[in-house]
UniProtKB/TrEMBL annotation:
GO terms for cellular component: membrane. One of its GO terms (biological process) is heme export. It is found in: Membrane. The keyword Transmembrane helix applies. The keyword Membrane applies. The lineage of its organism: Eukaryota, Metazoa, Ecdysozoa, Arthropoda, Hexapoda. This is Feline leukemia virus subgroup c receptor-related protein 2-like protein. It is a multi-pass membrane protein. It comes from the Eukaryota. It holds the Pfam family MFS_1.
Amino acid sequence: MSDKWGLRWTAILSSGLSCLGAWIKTFSVHPDRFHIVVIGHSIVGFTTTLILPIPGRLAAQWFPSNELSTATCLGLFGNQLGIAFGFLLTPIIVKNHENLDDIGNDLSRLCWGVAIVVTIGFILVLILFQDEPKLPPSETRALQKLNRTKKEETFVMPIKRLAKNKNYILLCNSYGLNVGVLNVLSTLLNQIFLAHFENGEEDAGRIGVTMIISGMSGTVISGIILDKTHKFKFFMWGYASLGYELSTEYTYPESENISAGILNITNSVYGVIFVIMLGILLKAYGDIPVHIAFCSILLLGFIITVLTEDEQRRQDAKKKAQYERIAKLENNIDNIPEIRSTNL
């Protein structure tokens, strides 16, 4: 979508649909309106596939090569910050009342608050968000734009090439396994915690905040280090954000949106499967088997990551562009006729 319409209109559409979904959910706070909740959540969930690839594309279009990882990680930092606020504020706003009407009032306040915040974000995107600079910020971005200009093709062709990219397929699976565990843990955290600590909703929220903030620090630090070292495979602790950066490296010069979108779909598919399976396991056998499953899935993701080659196509293209520029400069210098001094 961003390849056809540009980054600005993609951001406007995604934030606008998020705003629409949030306002729909304000009308869903009633026992017989569950279908409205599903509609609102479905719209917001659809926009996730549009929003999450934006930081990587934004970094590529606006930042030079030595700042790409930092810019991408800071862009995804906002997503993690929103999740942290959700963990913290939701149990504070929505109390565990005995009266369902009181719970409904709390949920209504939460939905209205979310809708107002999302609306402000949509207005800011509409007013301030720009598409891309007039001049590419780096050689790799210039080469990527030139490659797309020369080669007009359908949406299917890049997907076929990505399906044949071994490292990218391995990354999708390792990313889906690792981040899928994070999504399941976020979903089942209340159930796991409340099984041992009654009325501990707020404490569960604080645990979720601590978990996300710990990951946020790793995201920012690893992004800064990666811009200096480009050791993507070694500094993989910020997997939730660095996965998008690594997918761009594996698939360059393909569009960042297509590779990141497929990566996000893989993550969502794994997340849905894990939530269903581990939710059933939690109800039947308790939380210990669930924790064992978490560790097993993470181990499998680690093994797949180890088997993935450390391929850096974008960095290689940058080095090639710099080499060709230096070679051209040296060639021009060699062609300058030698100026001989003469005695007057």
